[in-house]
């Protein structure tokens, strides 16, 4: 008997131990998120269409991105050879940082191996160094933000999600002399709703707080040149630091911050997840750079994503299939029951060849289970119609309650 192994066997059982055949999904999913291409060696002629990919714009398959990766592999090989400070900084890391700083209109940018480590590493430093720093954090902030703030050791106040009045109360109650940092997202990862950024910027200015905005689900997709929601609102200069990922709209991997040079240099010098790990492979940096450059000049992908998301919002609305927010391309279809959510996902896969992973606790609170649907720029309007029809049939069959836009 091994008590540790026994513990985890029991734990998994309690979690419902969903084991999905990811190998099969991976084999049969087309090369594109919409799975329009048919894999030659697929065991069945039914293709799986993926509706939960974060490669929202299809940049992971874009010819210019693939070509950049291939050229960089030929020129520099497969790996970076070291950490950023010891042998692992390549030409492409530097170009990518310059491009990202320009995209956000900031003095400097710093690239990490992932968005998770960018949030964790940057917030540990930015919230943790100035004595007495008080952090104000949105209640729905991502796990990587929560972990970074924990690692900083800073005292924090949590404001209700997107609640400007609550944040005002908390700021007004705080000692005016203490350094302050407000941390929020622009498009929220699980609810898909958008922060009222202008009102948060007003508060930050009134109470002399620095701001850190996670635009992970917005960069590439919104704003001029894909610079995000703050840029769309024309207020990017009112925020201190932007954080983004290269793994979603930009279709590759890696994360970054962009902000004032002094802050970026401090993070570069002090952040352990930046310093003590191998840097991104040059080909990843090169392909991310190609994706950022492409999306700075092309509107086509953004337009297609907006059209697909808009149609999905309308079709779900007409069928009274409840979803959390119609403010972005993240369409969190509300099920509100663990077993029903798994069942709906299984029927989508088995009968319709549509893959949407059910989102259960701890990613969302128990009783708030969702199908987090992400239409992509590579789906067609016809795909969106078929998807909405499939959901409608499942709602009917399983008797899942209907409703409208719920709010987060
Ligand atoms: N921030 C948010 C809001 C996210 O949703 C995620 C990932 N889902 C991250 C940060 C981490 O990004 P990455 O996947 O690049 O590590």
TrEMBL record:
Domain Aminotransferase class I/classII large: start-end pairs: 50-391
Swiss-Prot/TrEMBL keywords: Acyltransferase, Heme biosynthesis, Pyridoxal phosphate, Transferase
BP GO annotations: protoporphyrinogen IX biosynthetic process
InterPro entries documented for this protein: 4pyrrol_synth_NH2levulA_synth, Aminotrans_II_pyridoxalP_BS, Aminotransferase_I/II_large, AON_synthase_class-II, PyrdxlP-dep_Trfase, PyrdxlP-dep_Trfase_major, PyrdxlP-dep_Trfase_small
Pathway(s) it belongs to: Porphyrin-containing compound metabolism; protoporphyrin-IX biosynthesis; 5-aminolevulinate from glycine: step 1/1
Top EC class of this enzyme: transferase
EC number: 2.3.1.37, 2.3.1.47
Pfam families: Aminotran_1_2 (PF00155)
Quaternary context: Homodimer.
PANTHER family, sorted: 2-AMINO-3-KETOBUTYRATE COENZYME A LIGASE, MITOCHONDRIAL, CLASS II AMINOTRANSFERASE/8-AMINO-7-OXONONANOATE SYNTHASE
Identification of the protein by name: 5-aminolevulinic acid synthase
């Amino acid at each position: 008997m091994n008590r540790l192994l026994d513990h985890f066997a029991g734990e998994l059982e309690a979690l419902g131990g969903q084991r999905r055949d990811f190998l099969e999904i991976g084999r049969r999913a087309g090369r594109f998120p919409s799975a329009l291409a048919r894999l030659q060696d697929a065991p069945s002629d039914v293709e799986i269409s993926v509706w939960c990919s974060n490669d929202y714009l299809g940049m992971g398959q874009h010819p210019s991105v693939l070509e950049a990766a291939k050229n960089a592999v030929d020129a520099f090989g497969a790996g970076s050879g070291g950490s950023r400070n010891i042998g692992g900084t390549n030409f492409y890391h530097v170009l990518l940082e310059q491009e990202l700083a320009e995209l956000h209109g900031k003095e400097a940018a710093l690239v990490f191996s992932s968005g998770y480590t960018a949030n964790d590493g940057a917030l540990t430093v930015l919230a943790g160094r100035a004595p007495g720093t008080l952090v104000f954090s949105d209640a729905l902030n991502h796990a990587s933000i929560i972990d970074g703030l924990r690692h900083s050791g800073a005292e924090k106040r949590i404001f209700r999600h997107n609640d400007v009045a609550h944040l005002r109360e908390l700021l007004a109650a705080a000692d005016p002399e203490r350094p302050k940092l407000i941390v929020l997202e622009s498009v929220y990862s699980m609810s898909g709703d958008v922060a009222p950024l202008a009102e948060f910027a007003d508060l930050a200015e009134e109470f002399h707080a620095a701001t850190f905005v996670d635009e992970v689900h917005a960069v590439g997709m919104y704003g001029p040149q894909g610079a995000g929601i703050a840029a769309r609102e024309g207020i990017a200069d009112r925020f201190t630091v932007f954080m983004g990922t290269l793994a979603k709209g930009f279709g590759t991997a890696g994360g970054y911050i962009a902000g004032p040079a002094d802050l970026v240099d401090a993070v570069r010098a002090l952040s352990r997840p930046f310093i003590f790990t191998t840097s991104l492979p040059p080909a990843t940096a090169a392909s991310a750079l190609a994706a950022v450059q492409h999306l700075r000049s092309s509107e086509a992908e953004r337009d297609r994503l907006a059209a697909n998301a808009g149609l999905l919002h309308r079709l779900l609305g007409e069928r009274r299939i409840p979803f959390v927010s119609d403010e972005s391309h993240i369409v969190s279809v509300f099920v509100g029951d663990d077993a029903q959510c798994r069942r709906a996902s299984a029927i989508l896969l088995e009968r319709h060849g549509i893959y949407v992973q059910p989102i259960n606790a701890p990613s969302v609170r128990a009783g708030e289970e969702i199908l987090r649907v992400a239409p992509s720029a590579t789906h067609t309007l016809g795909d969106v119609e078929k998807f909405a029809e499939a959901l409608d049939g499942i709602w009917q069959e399983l008797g899942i309650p209907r409703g409208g836009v719920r709010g987060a």
